[in-house]
């Protein structure tokens, strides 16, 4: 089980390698929503996303416990860069299995951190088999993108900073996106320990609505369909993340892609910062369900800013 | 003449209405340039650009001295929004003459601040005549975008914050774009008073290269041709701004548009913040003339982030 001490130890472990990211506010967005919004800018984090926190905590733990002489994962997204970056920081080899169809720019970014990219067919089975082969051959330790206590404890440090920097009186609500549930779990745990009166809400695209169903049923469910611009939020929960979320999260709210794109554009235009589609789902929820947020102090974790500028949705 | 007291009084006057903007750094850009770059983020300023500072100082001065019951200007850019915003803050009517060909989104933004937009033919003569008519009819006071001591003193407050927040040892260099020269003049004056060992460099597009010629000749020159994506930097210097620049600026360096676009993209991708083309000319200069900046501590004023997301150059 993750305790406050686990999270604090994670924070101490990763602190030399991460940014303590700023919290921004915006008058126009406050006027528009009637809420007081406080945006924790993990788009300014190392590798451009909060995933650096969890990846670092897991990789540093591998080093501290001498669990292995390399790390491996499969990912086509920010977690791939996070593990590659973390491994470079500590001098471990990293093997990243990526679908051969992943954008060249993402493969290049991972290689830019010195990791080895192993291409595979673009199926979940091929990705998992590819990683297993690497582990068997090299003795690398798997760093799962979310179904991992070290990763979750690392992701919890974003909310820890947000809550600690904010001081009193506490937030009414804290919002994060939910994909596999690592960030939402970590955020809910940190909030439970550090700001117990604050409610945590997970925000999910309608086109990858597994978490809202799992939250209701108590079992890991699949999304009815997968079709969303939020490519970082397509994964299902695990038993582990569902457990933390059922225990410490108040609600999961969903929004359609049109709302996500509109919210993303609003942040770009009004806050002058770059966020990726998966990151915009939180503000989209605030705009879609205004009655739940008006008059409230709301912490929002902006998760990442890695977009392909050649393929913008507007 | 503008003194340190003038600038400090301007800062006190406008402080309740502006953001004290943050200074960001970026490891990738430092590695790439060999310099230590400190970016003063006026793209996060009210109205999305530093122009809010000068506009406010001038408009507040009109109120303090009872110089008139309204303000007027002609602009199709950030100065129009700055004057409109400033006038709304103090409850004065504002009349903004804009070419009828200006983008609807810019006219709407000005109207959104409660100012009256007067459309004119898209020529300099029509703009000036339009403003004169307004002044004659309403008794409004002209707020010139740069040929104005109050405006220059207001723009000087950006460098004042940058220098004061940075502390010791001082910057080796501070860079700003140069169009009409209001920001460059204010920056050079503030730096002269507060950090006299720091050199100030103006950065100009090759496609609007009037300031570099005027700096050499000592007279206000026209650009050989006007053709640049940096639409905020097309104006010529005035005798006033040329005087300040000749006195306190070390050099003016020019860059082609391809460099400006590449620098803009680099900031978007690496810093995850939105800057407009006119704002990217400073980093473009650092990248084009690396020998002048390697190993140096360089303050860079990021001037604005107002871009039409539907018309990006990449």
Please describe what this structure looks like:
- The structure is a homodimer of 314-residue chains.
- By secondary structure, chain A is an alpha/beta fold.
- The first copy, chain A, has twelve helices and ten strands.
- The first copy, chain A, has two domains: 4-50 and 148-302, Rossmann fold (3-Layer(aba) Sandwich); 52-142, Rossmann fold.
- In chain A, 45% of the residues lie in helices and 15% in strands.
- In chain A, strand 7 (173-177), helix 8 and strand 8 (199-205) form a beta-alpha-beta unit.
- The longest helix of chain A is centred in the middle third of the chain and has 18 residues, at 149-166.
- Chains A and B meet through helix 11 of A and helix 11 of B.
Low-confidence stretches of chain A: none
Assigned CATH architecture of the largest domain in chain A: 3-Layer(aba) Sandwich
Query: For this structure, what is the CATH class of the largest domain in chain A?
Result: Alpha Beta
What Rg of chain A do the Cα atoms give?
18 Å
Give the overall pLDDT of chain A as a whole number. Answer: 96
Q: State the total count of DSSP E strands of chain A.
A: 10
Secondary-structure element pattern of chain A, one letter each:
HEHEHEHEHEHEHEHEHHEHHE
Show the largest interface.
Answer: A-B, 18 and 18 residues
Number of domains of chain A: 2
Question: What oligomeric state is this?
Answer: homodimer
How much of the sequence lies in strands of chain A comes to 15-25%
- Side by side, the strands of the main sheet of chain A go 1-2-10-7-8-9
* Biggest beta-sheet profile of chain A: 6 strands, mixed
Shape of chain A: globular
- Helix count, DSSP H or I runs of 4 or more residues of chain A: 12
By helix and strand content of chain A, what is the structural category?
alpha/beta
CATH topology descriptor of the largest domain in chain A: Rossmann fold
Determine the fraction of residues in helical runs of chain A and give it as a percent range. Answer: 40-55%
Distance between the termini of chain A: 43 Å
């Amino acid at each position: 089980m993750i305790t406050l001490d686990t999270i604090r130890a994670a924070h101490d472990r990763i602190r030399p390698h991460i940014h303590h990211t700023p919290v921004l506010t915006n008058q126009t967005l406050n006027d528009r929503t009637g809420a007081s919004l406080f945006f924790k800018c993990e788009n300014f984090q190392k590798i451009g996303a909060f995933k650096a926190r969890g990846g670092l905590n897991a990789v540093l733990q591998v080093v501290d416990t001498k669990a292995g002489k390399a790390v491996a994962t499969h990912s086509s997204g920010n977690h791939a860069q996070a593990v590659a970056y973390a491994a470079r920081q500590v001098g471990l080899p990293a093997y990243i299995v990526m679908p051969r169809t992943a954008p060249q720019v993402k493969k290049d970014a991972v290689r830019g951190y010195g990791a080895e990219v192993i291409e595979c067919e673009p199926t979940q089975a091929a990705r998992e088999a590819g990683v297993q082969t690497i582990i068997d051959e090299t003795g690398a330790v798997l760093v799962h993108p979310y179904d991992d206590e070290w990763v979750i404890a690392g992701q919890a440090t974003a909310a820890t900073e947000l809550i600690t920097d904010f001081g009193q009186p506490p937030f009414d609500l804290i919002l994060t996106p939910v994909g596999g549930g690592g960030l939402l779990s970590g955020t809910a745990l940190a909030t439970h320990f550090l700001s117990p009166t604050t409610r945590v809400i997970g925000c999910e695209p309608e086109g990858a609505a597994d978490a809202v169903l799992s939250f209701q049923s108590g079992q890991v469910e699949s999304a009815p369909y997968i079709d969303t611009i939020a490519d970082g939020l397509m994964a299902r929960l695990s038993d582990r993340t569902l457990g933390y979320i059922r225990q410490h999260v108040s609600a999961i709210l969903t929004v359609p892609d049109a709302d996500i794109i509109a919210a993303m554009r609003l942040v770009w235009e009004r806050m002058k910062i770059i966020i990726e589609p998966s990151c915009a789902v939180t503000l989209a929820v605030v705009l879609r369900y205004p009655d739940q947020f008006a008059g409230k102090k709301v912490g929002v974790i902006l998760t990442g800013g890695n977009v392909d500028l050649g393929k913008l949705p507007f």
